[in-house]
Specification:
Elements: H1 2-46, E1 53-58, H2 66-78, E2 88-93, H3 101-110, E3 115-118, H4 121-130, E4 136-138, E5 160-162, H5 167-181, E6 187-192, H6 199-213, E7 216-221, H7 227-237, E8 242-245, H8 249-253, H9 255-264, E9 269-271, H10 275-278, E10 283-287, H11 289-304, E11 320-325, H12 326-331, H13 338-341, E12 346-348
Parallel strand pairs: 1-2, 1-3, 3-4, 4-5, 6-7, 6-8, 8-9, 9-10, 11-12
Antiparallel strand pairs: 10-11
Helix pairs in contact: 2-11, 3-4, 5-6
Length: 349
């Protein structure tokens, strides 16, 4: 009996030693796993986060659209993005030359930007031809469906989304306002760029309104800065009594010259872009492009957070601005009817 007891006791001590050894092995293994996990976490924490890179593509010079650019920056700041800190913006401008845009768009694609923001239908077309994968946010477009950029406003369906101005529908209202300001209006010169997407539809809407008001239209194509003076001479020769100026790279870049020539020729003029008012323009009616660029920042934010352009509806303006410049009216000897002044959102005195 004593021998068996000693054997069991010896066996117990042996098993106990084995158990302790196993426990030490598992404890060591656990310590290694914990150490590796901690080191991995520290390494991951030390790795710099990827800073989003945004491409910004415009036809005109950056100084020409400085108000829109600042609105875009403000929109980003409101969402927590500060240029140069947690977001990088690659600015690319064609400096008024449309033929430069395709190469600039390709350059942005090679830089592997996360998103391309465009400032109108012409740069959007260049961006669309350069990539089908990088998301494109339209700062504005008159007719994105007609231009073939999106399948529909509600469901864009591709890599492009953003904002639409509804400018074609606005053109009829602009002619109506001109008729109210100049009751005997019978002839209107329309300045536009035939190659600019959306202007054809704008002209069509204006023609429909002209038929209703008994007004004859004279379309004058402004393809180049040198065409501006030629257009005013043609308007004078055609006995135009007012001018309607459509948006486009040439007209917006040379807005001061256009406003000055309208005053010199004593022609009441209404404009599609609010920037003309700072240049001495008479009347503006339309969507605020500046506000649209502020809103474009929200699309950038949503896409950076994982949303797909195909699922982000194109936003349409819900508010339109009506501005009258009484200084410009006085310069050409025009009296604005009180009922028209009363409806203006802003009157420049």
């Amino acid at each position: 009996m004593p021998d068996r007891t000693r054997m069991r006791s010896s066996s117990f001590r042996s098993n106990n030693r084995k158990s302790k050894i196993e426990n030490l092995k598992w404890a060591g293994l656990f310590a290694i796993v914990v150490a590796l996990t901690v080191c991995g976490a520290r390494a991951e924490a030390q790795q710099p986060k990827k800073v989003p890179r945004i491409g910004f593509l415009t036809t005109v010079s950056l100084s020409t659209i400085s108000a829109r650019i600042e609105a875009f920056r403000e929109g980003l700041r409101e969402l927590g993005y500060v240029e140069g800190k947690n977001i990088v913006i690659e600015w690319r401008s064609g400096e008024g030359k449309e033929d430069r845009l395709p190469a600039l768009a390709v350059e942005l694609v090679r830089l592997k930007v996360d998103i391309i923001v465009t400032t109108g239908p012409i740069p959007t077309r260049s961006a669309k031809e350069a990539t089908v994968t990088i998301p494109i946010v339209m700062g504005f477009d008159d007719d994105p469906v007609g231009s073939g950029f999106v399948a529909s406003l509600a469901r864009p369906g591709g890599n492009i989304t953003g904002l639409a101005t509804l400018a074609p529908e606005i053109s009829g209202k602009q002619l109506e306002l001109l008729k109210e300001v100049v009751p005997r209006l019978s002839r209107v010169a329309v300045f536009g760029t035939s190659t600019r997407p959306g202007n054809a539809q704008s002209l069509k809407e204006t023609e429909l309104a002209a038929g209703a008001f008994g007004v004859k239209l004279q379309f004058l194509d402004v393809l180049d800065p040198k065409d501006i003076e030629t257009a005013f001479r043609a308007a004078s020769k055609g006995r135009a009594e007012a001018v309607l100026v459509l948006g486009g790279p040439v007209t917006i870049s040379h807005r001061t010259q256009i406003a000055d020539l309208a005053a010199k020729n004593r022609l009441p003029a209404i404009y599609e872009r609010a920037e003309f008012m700072d240049a001495g323009g008479l009347i503006f009616y339309g969507a605020s492009i500046t506000e649209m660029f502020r809103r474009a920042a929200t699309y950038v934010d949503k896409i950076l957070k994982g949303r797909k352009p195909a699922d982000l509806p194109v936003e349409q303006p819900i508010k339109f601005a009506f501005i009258i410049n009484l200084k410009a009216a006085k310069q050409i000897g025009l009296t604005i009817p009180p009922n028209v002044l009363a409806r203006a959102d802003k009157v420049i005195k």
